[in-house]
């Protein structure tokens, strides 16, 4: 989650030309239903980030998950905090995550894990001069080993499902490797696309040794003034041999409006095309704030609802054209600033207010889900 906006892929000269080509190719409106073969999106097409539900187990979690499922959410994107799971070398505690995965499965909710935040004994953080943020692991293979452990537990042949024969079986088939490595707070040694590709390659290989059909997602990549421009970073990834290391390109595609989101997806895919790899895409964060400090993403309650309806509808309509695997809205509920952090737009993008009351946006989200046939039966 990043805090400032750059016009989609601004500053990448090659991509300006890409956008011009795409505008010429796609300048007209696509007919409703064109490109989708007349079939609807899969149940997990619409997702949500719901850290609030994850962090409050018990009755509150149950009510929250029931409520978001009723709104048409089919997938929850959730960080798997490595430092909380491996508290000492080789000792893994997944009890808290087991309960969460079970609660999702009971409601027919798919899970997209984010592999993130190594424990101190795995981290590349220096002993002195450490900068603020989350450092990648010292050894890329260590994140791969962590991912393989999770795949053996929650994947198609996972021990989690074997131990719970009465639970609806919804194994994890997609895994996201890190988050926003083109921003210094999530790569404090300095964003390095080649280093990230090494991490992506090692992790993907390890997971696919457990589940050869697993989908590997890149980290969600934003286009933020706080870090390396999205286009520049993607070019660096492909120059470092990224093609073949992932199955789906993930974008945290925040933009002021629907057209900005579409432009980001199109231009990012065009970068891959220039390297012989037009990727499938998963938007793993998008949203608009109804409060907080001034921001390109701050709007009124009514405008938030309109943007959600327009953007989700347009992305669903163009999903084949855009190679779009799914869209994950950020966030389920507004929240307070993180400990030691300040206020920013991302704390105010919820479909719910902090007091749990619904914003008009919730009805918009549910309405799109209903039209797509994604409400639970």
Structure, described:
With 377 residues, the chain is of the alpha/beta class. The protein has one domain (44-371): TIM Barrel (Alpha-Beta Barrel), CATH 3.20.20. Helices cover 38% and strands 12% of the residues.
Domains (count): 1
- Whole-number average pLDDT? 91
- According to DSSP, the number of beta strands is 10
Helix content: 25-40%
CATH architecture: Alpha-Beta Barrel
| CATH H level, superfamily name | Glycosidases
Overall body shape: globular
Distance between the termini: 33 Å
Oligomer: single chain
The proportion of residues in beta strands is 5-15%
Biggest sheet details: 8 strands, parallel
Please give a handful of descriptors for the protein shown.
eight-stranded parallel β-sheet; single chain; 10 strands; alpha/beta; TIM Barrel; 377 residues; globular; two-stranded antiparallel ribbon; 13 helices
Give the topology, please.
Blueprint: H1 13-25, E1 46-49, H2 51-55, H3 59-70, E2 75-81, H4 82-85, E3 86-88, E4 91-92, H5 95-106, E5 110-116, H6 140-154, H7 159-162, E6 174-177, H8 193-210, E7 215-217, H9 230-239, E8 248-252, H10 258-274, E9 280-285, H11 301-317, H12 319-322, E10 324-329, H13 360-371
Parallel strand pairs: 1-2, 1-10, 2-5, 5-6, 6-7, 8-9, 9-10
Antiparallel strand pairs: 3-4
Helix pairs in contact: 1-10, 6-8, 8-9, 9-10, 10-11, 11-13
